[in-house]
Structure formats: structure tokens, C-alpha cells
What we know:
The protein is of the alpha+beta class.
Amino acid sequence: MKREVEIHVVDSLDEIPAQDWNRLAGDNPFVRHGFLSALQEIGCVVKRGWRAHHLILKRGDEFAGAMPLYFKAHSRGEYVFDHAWADTLERQGLRYYPKALSAVPFSPVTGPLLIAADHEDRVLLAHGAIELPRRLDISSLHVLFPQKQDIEALTDAGYMLREGVQFHWENAPDGGFADFDAFLATMSHDKRKKVKQDRRRVTDASVTYTWLRGADIDQAALDFFYDCYENTYREHWNPPYLMREFFGRIHAEAPRSMLLVIAEADGQRLACALNMIGGDVMYGRYWGTHEFISGLHFETCYMQGIAYCIVHKLARFEGGAQGVHKMSRGMLPTPTWSAYWIADQRFANAISEFLDAETEAMDRHIEELEAHTPFRKKT
């Protein structure tokens, strides 16, 4: 019989031993204690208006679960858009912000957000998360990109679900593809030809690649990556979300979670992509370049990532948010989900109707995408 539980709210993870948190969080690098702590302690989330109100589930003195939770006065850095909801509510004279949000800041990656050992405790966290904004008269609670077991608990706790789509690459079952050519052989003739043409453009520009992971990543490589990352934001007239110190901290604490794909030509580094790895899954995150070369973006961000997964027997490569164009590189449409609690019942009813219609449309969209698979038809 389980002892009585208590749910506490904390504004940092300092009071939770990293080993206890990570024991329940698993190997997803984005919800590890060090990753979330670094975002807060270095100031990445605070300067962007994310105020931590993490939930901690305890049985007596024993840590039994947690839920990363933030209050926000905007919807930036989330990748699931709710601006129309905010406009609608505020046109009615009601306050939408601040809102409560459970997600990995600035990262559209699936992972555990109800961090607990079993379904019962995940449901307790889901209910507890509702009580906090309800008590503080906050308009809504959003849970973005939860994994399957979280979705089941959120559904049982009465949350509304919203479907989205990303594009993920899956390795071959039973040990993975033998090599990159074996992967290409599964693609249709036109798509295989397109991939080869794109790769040839990069090769013809004398671009070569180096994969750096863990201890092979030195300070010069991190500095070069950050310069590329920062340049991407400069081109869009925005300051970067994350600081150079953050990436150094993550590399120091979990070096094997980080992979740099560095493109070089004529002895000079010219582009870089950063991927994160946890268990047998790789997540595409950031990239930047100092020179435009046709095909460089797709090769650096996607084809090199797939090649790495094949060589190192990783099961899945999540290519990030949006991007139907990724299908032609062998990534397939994969449903993603978010979950919501809305305080105002009138608005909740309207959102529920909207989500029902949107889900039907999203299902049809995914079916249409699947009909245009880049792979050869099985006979």
C-alpha cells in the first residue's frame, strides 16, 4: 500500500538530488536534471520570461515524481501556436496571460513531462498541475510534446488533446540498416535520385564532414558551433534563446548527449549542426552556416544525422518542428500531441470543439502525407 503523497511547488531544482530526478526521468537529455537546471541557473529561461513553478511529488521524505512547469506572459519559444486563442479570449475582455506551461523550453521534442514511475503517480501530477493555476486564477495549462505514457495520464485527468505532426526517421528493424546505401535502396527511384543529386552538390563544393561527440568536442568546436547558432538568429534579427555558457555546461555535465556535425571546405570550418542524443534516439536541434552552398543545409542537418544513426545503430532521429520537405530525405510524418486545461468553461467548450475539428483535419493531412511516402512500395 502506497503512503500518502504530497505535491510541492519549487522555483528551482536545487532541493532535488540529480540522481533521484534522473532515475525517473530516464535518458531523454532534455528533461535531465542538469539540462533543466542549466537553463534556469544560467538565465536562459528567466531572461525570456519563463518563471519556474515545478511540481514535486513526495511520499514522506521520498522523491516520487516531478513535472517541469513554468508561468509565462507570452507564447514564444513553444512551437505549438495558441496566438489565436489568446486573441479570442482577450477580445472578450478576459485575461489569457499569464498561462501555465509544461514543456522543455525552446525545444519541440517529445519526452517525459510527468516524471514518475507509474501511471497512478503520473495522474496525480496531472491533477496537481491543474490545482496550481486554478488556485492562482490563471487562464490555462498547456503540456507540449508529452510522450505516450504521459498522454494516457493526461487523458485520464481530463485534459483536452491537440494533435500535431513532426517528421522522424526510423532505422530498419532487427539491427538497423547495414549502411547508408542500404537505406537509400529503400527509397523510390525519384527520391533516391534527388538525395544523390543534393549530396553531389555538396561534394562538388569540396565539403567534408567531421562528427564530434563527447570528449572529442573541444572549446574551439563549441565556440564555432555557437558562432553558427548565433548567426542564424542574427539573420532573422532576433537574439538567440540560449547562451554560450549553457552549451558549455551541458557538454561538461553530459558530454555524450551532444553531437556536433561540422562541415569544412579548403581547411576551413563553414557550417555546424548540433544534435542531442539520449539512449537510442537522436534529436536534431540547431544549425548555422557562414556560407551558402546548395544542399548544405539538408546534408548537414538531415543526411549526416541519418548517416550517424546508421553507423551507431540509433533507432530514431527526430528532425525537429515543421518541415514537409524532410519527407524527401526519408523522414516520415509522425503524430505529436499537446494537452490542455482551460479554466473558463465557456472558452474550454469552444476550444474542445475546435480541437475536435482540427484533429480530424490533421488526421486527413497525415494520411495525405503518408500517401506520398518517399519509399518504394512493398509488393
